[in-house]
Design brief:
Length: 193
């Protein structure tokens, strides 16, 4: 890796970390506002959630690589809803939600909904270490240059995107999710209606 490439990678990671801190601060502020009774109910139910206008945005057509080396596109899951979770080994909230929220919900709903964990700007060794520690069994992909994360409009880690069976982005959440929060988002945006 050249010196310039390494500097760009470090700079990207710093900006993602700054984004994660900013999301945490804004999320805390949102919780305080929600508890004061001045926030809309949807903010209190799902802090940090950003739903696309009308839920009609098409998922980006970016090719990426699965952990097993096979190429993939989100369109490969067409006809099935997909929960896409962007994570990184250097993001403790990402690792915690993989184990505590995503894997249990995948175990429960994996026959109805696809789960895809996308490792962003990481080394393969660091990513595999996280997978071993968390024991996740859902589909995993690598996004070493952050192209897929950027295409989905990601700005902080972790980020979760819900894509319906027609390939449309129906919800976009930045920040860590508990199992109950993830379950609520999935049921509201992918299983109801």
């Amino acid at each position: 890796m050249s010196g310039n490439t390494r500097l760009r990678t470090v700079a990207r990671r710093r900006w993602l970390l700054v984004g994660a801190v900013l999301v945490a601060v804004l999320g805390a502020a949102g919780v305080i506002v929600a508890r004061s009774g001045t926030a809309p109910a949807s903010s209190a139910e799902h802090p940090g959630e950003r739903v696309t206008a009308g839920g009609q945005a098409r998922a980006p057509r970016v090719e990426f690589e699965r952990f097993d080396g096979r190429p993939a596109r989100l369109q490969d899951w067409r006809g099935r809803p997909v929960v896409v979770n962007f994570w990184a080994s250097w993001c403790p909230p990402c690792v915690a939600e993989m184990r505590d929220a995503f894997e249990p919900l995948h175990d429960q709903l994996g026959d109805r909904i696809a789960f895809l964990g996308v490792d962003v700007q990481d080394t393969r060794a660091a990513a595999r270490d996280v997978v071993e520690r968390t024991g996740v069994t859902y589909e995993l992909a690598a996004d070493p240059d952050g192209a897929l994360f950027t295409a989905f409009g990601g700005f902080g880690m972790p980020t979760t995107v819900l894509v319906d069976a027609n390939g449309r982005v129906v919800a976009h959440h930045t920040g860590a999710l508990t199992r109950a929060e993830l379950d609520g988002l999935v049921r509201t945006h992918l299983l109801e209606g």
